[in-house]
Design goal:
With 188 residues, the protein is of the alpha+beta class. The chain is 41% helix and 12% strand. It starts with a strand and ends with a helix.
């Protein structure tokens, strides 16, 4: 459609807009900006009819506002990665790679598989960022099991996704030992 007339106007809030008349269209087109459009130009943008009977060009899709989690996770992830750099667990060059891994993990995009821990956890173990269960803790837990203490209910109650004792962190092992000893004391 060819532009036959452009009429600049101002609304009651002093906002400038343009009424554009197009050849073959019986209504004026309302535009909030016209760029370098002038009379005689071809106008090939899609035109919509509003509920008030005026024509307009639909704007590009509105961007969805980011959720608090989407804005918080990247900052937290970078902070976690920085902590690994400071602790000399990863080189500075890898900080953004690790932050990206953390964001994926926090957003739920990186899930643990049934067979093994997530790549993030495996990499953290290799880098020494996660202290795993010690031999002494493993022996203590084995002795508690031999004494009749069943560990699985404690693991489930804590919500840990643990397939075997060696998957425990040092802190988890300490917690499990404390819970098992409390149960043992109650049983005496």
């Amino acid at each position: 459609m060819r532009v036959t007339k452009i009429d600049a106007r101002t609304d009651k809030n002093d906002k400038k807009y343009w009424w554009v008349t197009l050849e073959g269209l019986d209504k004026n087109l309302y535009l909030s900006q016209i760029g370098d459009l002038k009379e005689g130009d071809d106008f090939d943008s899609p035109v919509k009819l509003s509920s008030k009977g005026t024509c307009y060009v639909p704007d590009s899709p509105k961007r969805r506002a980011r959720t608090e989690e989407e804005t918080r996770n990247p900052g937290m992830a970078l902070s976690y990665a920085k902590d690994l750099v400071i602790a000399d667990k990863i080189p500075l060059e890898d900080i953004f790679k690790w932050a990206s891994n953390f964001v994926g993990f926090m957003s739920g995009r990186t899930q643990k598989s049934e067979a093994k821990a997530s790549p993030l956890v495996e990499a953290a173990k290799k880098a020494g960022a996660i202290e795993m269960i010690t031999d002494e803790q493993t022996s203590t837990l084995a002795e508690l099991q031999k004494s009749g203490i069943v560990l699985l209910p404690f693991v489930k109650k804590q919500g840990w996704d643990i397939k075997k004792i060696s998957d425990l962190t040092r802190q988890q092992a300490n917690t499990l030992i404390d819970l098992a000893n409390q149960e043992k004391e109650r049983g005496k």
